[in-house]
Every structure is written in structure tokens, then in C-alpha cells.
Amino acid sequence: MGDAIMRTRERLEDGVPRPVTETTGKGPLRRLRAPRRPRLWFEILLIALSYWTYSLVRNAVPEQRTAALRNADWIWRVEQQLGIAVEETVNHAVNSVTWLVVGMNYYYATLHFVVTLGVLVWLYRSHPGRYAATRLVLFATTGVALVGYYLYPLAPPRLMNGGHFIDTVMVHETWGSMASGDLKNMSNQYAAMPSMHIGWSVWCGLTIFALASVPWVRVLGLVYPALTLVVIVATANHFWLDAVGGVACLAFGFGMAFVLYGRLPYALPRMVPVAARRRVWLPGRA
């Protein structure tokens, strides 16, 4: 009798339409991992709002000049003891070639933003399935950097007490840094650790190297962060250890993306399936 009731119940359930989805798994985490096509208006708004917030928070961090100078002296002493204090030598060597140092000043001031935005646009257009996860890496990297600015104020080499570093922007009267000349009051000068010039440039470089199809473009992806490292040191805006901090923040960003998406951003599908997450009702068996 019980078997007959069970078979009757199964037949009734078979007659009910079932939802068929292209994704498997349950819960909000699975929904987060599903690739979604980015919306242009939302991305423009998000990027603008995020950069405004980043600038506001970064510049709102107390400058803590005394602590920042003390930390700079400590880093410089440690580098000298380890025999890796090369920043002053690079700074003076590049400063002796006017056209080179002026070019580096403008590189420092502009490419940081231009290349990063260019890579975001390229991802949006050519790799929409990977865009959200890769953008998350960039945002998480920048977010954790703000914590570093608050917890570890650091003066750049050009502002060290008794240092022999050359502020290349001031000397050559070029517009090359938000922390020099007439623009210095618009930016926190003691937020050098970690270096987001390195964090963002390595993000750009890895993204280009991993996803570009043209060999020479992939090579440029590797050259860009290496050249950026030379620039931040040569212009006396950062110790090279600030670059290590930037890479550490980027590693945190990739970790966040891996946790939320279950894989590295570059391993996600390039395109978003047209019917992704669409529910289709199919008739049950008779």
C-alpha cells in the first residue's frame, strides 16, 4: 500500500514543470560567481565614485609628519645595512639627463591613470566575462592600500630630513606629481607606503600578459610595471620597498577574487553566455 502511494506521488511530481538553469549550486556565493555582462553606465559611475572615495579617504588620513619622517629614516637605514639602498644613486643619475627625468615626471603624473583606465575599457569591451572579477582585484588592492596609509605613514625620499634626494619636479619645474609644487596641498604627501603606482601597474601588466593575443603587446605588459618601478625610484617619490607593499596589496586583491569567484579572474570565461542564469520551464514527463 505504501509503495503504491509513493509511486503515485512520484507521477504527480513528474507532471510539474521544472526550472532548468545554466548554473549549478545554490546560495548567494554561487550567484556571485556566475559571470554577468557589465553595464556601461554602472561601471562609469562605480569607477568615478570609487576613485573619488579613494582620494577623499587617502587625503583625509592624518599626515602624521613626525611618524612619516621617522619611518622613512628607519627604512633608509635598513636598506643601507642590507646593501640595497640604490634609490639615491638612481635619482642622481637620472636627474643628470634633463630630457629623461622630465619624461619620467610626466610618466609618473599621467600613465598611472591613463593605462589603468585603458585596461579597464579593454576588459569591458573584449573580456566581459572576466571584467567584474578583474575589476574586483583592482578595487580590493586599492582598498587595502588605504589601510596601509593610515597604519604606516611614510615620507617619500625627496622629503626626508637631511637627505640628499632631488625632487625632480621642483628642480626641473615640471608638472609631475600631486605632492610637489602648487599641487602638494591637494594630496597627502606622507602616504607613500604602499605604492599604488606599482600596485596598479602590476595589475595592468599581468592582465595584459594573461589576456592579450599579440606577442609584443604581452611583452609590453611585462615592461610597463618594471619601467614604473624605475620611475617611482628615479623621481624620489618612493623607496623600492614601497613597491613591495604595492605587490602585497595586489596579492590580497587576487585572493579576494579567488574566494568570491572560485578561480583566478583570467581563468573565467571570456564572454558572458547570452542565456546565463535564465530560467527555462520544460514540461514534465507524462
From TrEMBL:
**Limits of the Inositolphosphotransferase Aur1/Ipt1 domain:** 74-254
List the keywords (alphabetical). Membrane, Transmembrane, Transmembrane helix
* Predominant place of localization: membrane
Specify the protein's topology with respect to the membrane. Multi-pass membrane protein
Q: Which PANTHER family match?
A: PA-PHOSPHATASE RELATED-FAMILY PROTEIN DDB_G0268928, PTHR31310
What the entry lists under InterPro entries is as follows: Aur1/Ipt1, IPC_Synthase-Related
Protein's recorded name: Phosphatase PAP2 family protein
Which Pfam families has this protein been placed in?
PAP2_3
Q: Name one GO cellular component term.
A: membrane
- Location within or outside the cell: Membrane
